[in-house]
Specification:
467 residues; mainly alpha; Growth Hormone, Chain: A
Amino acid sequence: MSTTISIEDVPFNRFHKILTVRSVGGLFVDGYVLSIIGVALATLSPQLGLDAFWQGLIAASALVGIFVGGFIGGALTDKLGRRLLYFVGPVMFVAFSVAQFWVQSGEQLFALRFMIGIAVGIEYPVATAFLVEFLPKKQRGPCLASLNVMWFAGAAAAFIVAESLLHVGGENGWRWTLASTAVIGALLFIIRLGTPESPRWLMSKGRHSEAEAVIRRVYGPRFSLANLPENRDGRKLKIRDLLHAGYGKRMAFVSIFWTCSVTPVFAVYAFAPRVLDALHLSGEWASYGSIAITLLFVVGCVLAMRRVNTLGRRKLLIRSFLWSALALLLLGWMNNGPSLLILALFGAYAVCIGGAQVLQFVYPNEIFPTEIRAGAVGFSASLSRIGAAAGTWLIPLSLQNLGIASTMYIAAGITLTGLVVSWLMAPETKDLNLDDAASLSTDPQAYARYRDTIQSERPRSAINDRI
């Protein structure tokens, strides 16, 4: 085999499949954690004496934790490596999920779910950076998209497990329900054992011999550093470069589209039974409707995952925002319609938003280079959770004070904002290798500013080197 063949062009092998399973497990836990609280709240609220304010605050607590965890996880993953941070999230999932079983107040539950949210925030940058830095080019988009499929699969599992445990667990059913996340966290820790460090990260730290050892282990003895395409312009990027030197525009795009895609979804997810009840679907209609809609979210993500390479990132994102916004507008307009119509519109939203959901991890991992990739994912995830947390906290108050129609119109407005931003700023990266996708040379104006910055820094760097 020629030494000039890029590792991005090798066949999808057993290692890639195992790594994908290891990484998507974190998003499964994420979907499980953030969804299960919505089902448990109805039972635990009377026992803990929670009013609407505290219900919304506890539902949003994990999202606030993700805000903090994203910043921490992104920075530490770029600084300390992918492999070390790969095990932090699972350990935290187990510890703080088990502790939920003994909570006695809303304040305690808020604190524990905040810590679980930090674990989720750490998962985003480390799991996605691992995947994108090992995967072949053709599988990069679909595998990163599969992360969101597993998020909704975890959410669906949460509804199913919660309904079962609440029925058989008696007055402590909600405690068993919240503590059940520990089981998944423990399994995640076990399956991640044996994962090597990312050779791209090792290269960015000057650890060339270790990087080559990993490449030979994963791809075979005929591969070496010569098979690893990497940015060779001589400049070492730092986390501050997310906000200037051409990457600020990309950071703004990712943060805004991610926020607009998750805010309505999280808000609806946390209070799915209450939203459906406000739309006149109660009892079994609400319970089974929540499960059905969740499964349709999975269907939407699977369909988007299959089209991320054929349709392209940009078209998929724009169409996703367009059709999902229309579904939300119709839900607001026809909120008094027949039950089957309401479920159909909710299902249409669930399927159509799949495109925006799966691209949340594709875009930031493709358009930022190795040195700041995890930081970009963590930063974007954190900023997006501001809107998600606010939406989750405010939705019970919105339903109570504004009504279901206005609530759906607000969700539609947020989605339409995502559409406009995507139309103006979304790039196309489907046919680019990872180095080219992350290079500013695809944006002539940004690249010119970037090269000017390099030129201005070189004399000072040369002086520092001589000193």
